[in-house]
Amino acid sequence: MEQKANKLPEGFDSLQDAQKQKFLNLKKLKDEGKKVVGIYCSYVPTELIYAAGAIPVSLCAVSEKPIAAGERDLPRNLCPLIKASYGHAITDTCPFFYFSDLIIGETTCDGKKKMYELLNNVKETHVIQLPQNNIDPEGYPFFKEQIIKFKEKLEDYFDITITEDDIRKAIKDGNEEKKNLVEFFKLSSLEPSPISGLEQFNVNEAFGFQYDRKKKNEEVKTRTKELKDYWEKELKGTKDERPRILVSGCPAGGVKDKILKTIEDLGGVIVGYDSCSGLRTYMQLVDEDPNRDPYEALAEKYLGVNCSVMSPNPGRMKDLDYLLDFYHVDGVIEMTLVACHTFNLESYEVKKKVESHDIPYIHIESDYSQNDSGQVRTRIEAFLEIVRDNMQYKEEAYN
Ligand code: BJ8
Fold this sequence. Notes:
The protein is α/β, with parallel strands linked by helices. Helix content is 52%, strand content 11%. The chain has a four-stranded parallel sheet, sandwiched between helices. The protein has a four-stranded parallel sheet with strand order 6-5-7-8, with helices on both faces. Helix 15 links the parallel strand 7 (331-337) and strand 8 (361-366). The longest helix is centred in the last third of the chain and has 26 residues, at 373-398. The mean pLDDT is 94. The structure holds Double cubane cluster (BJ8). The site of Double cubane cluster has 20 residues, from helix 4, helix 6 and helix 15. Double cubane cluster binds at residues 41-43, 79, 81-82, 108-109, 111-112, 250-251, 276, 305, 307, 309, 337, 340, 342-343.
């Protein structure tokens, strides 16, 4: 049956060209009858959304524009990511929110979970309850039950049945995608890195808006191969003096230019991310053992996301040990968003961990505005000098 074409939202004309294209791709799928589910977090098992025949889209907002609208209902001293996400929703200026049939929230930080209560007045929002940490074994059966409830919500809402086979297939496809992305994120462990961290961030973001999973896998593999070949032919055996930086902390989409671009403009190279934007998110696969309960396997994978909302959160420190060595990191810049209490508090432990590797560390707390861009630039510039001095000192000491 032919589907009725969907309307364009009012704010469509003001979108950037790349945004328009992503949106038009999604609109085409909606016009063909595809269902869309909006999500905000790495704890949401997207396998179930695919198993429901729907497309998951990430709704975390990265623009300063909708914040003023968000502050009409939300307190001003809240994280910009939450205010911008909510502001977009109430002003209907996020094309992806506009086309989402259902929204999935999760009880991560206090700000997000309370925001979801209000968001439910704008569009139906189902909230997945998370345990407080991922080290207490009792959390896993609890989270497994939440995953089953999430599946039942999708079945009810879309009036469908999701079979175990659907879920197992989605797990298999998801693992394939994760493996390809891991290879892509491994590229920057090469010396010199064949890709800038900003480009890596942008490419990963663009992959997120490729809704055809087969095509996406092909694109990831092709781009990885191109870069690997480039390294073999042009870079292998050459020396790169740029400090290798790991960016840690909150999602960085809203401070991409202010922080990520500045690091690289000032002569650093971002080689990895200890955040929801990098290797860490894709490293753990979902167990495909046919004898294993798939909900249990999903619970194990997704509770393994070592976000600062977990308390305590020793897994992040283990991830850091791995990432610092794997990417041969020279310096760590931790970026936290203003009013993100969990990441801001955890920065104390991150600093200790990084410095135990004899690697310089700096913590920059910022928001989506440009008010502090001069100050941020000066701090990054000074930090890179410290990192360079440390690199030189180590080279002299060990050679
Ligand atoms: S798994 S990082 S996507 S919660 S909204 S916690 S910045 S105060 S986004 Fe996140 Fe999931 Fe964790 Fe990743 Fe802080 Fe702001 Fe809360 Fe935030």
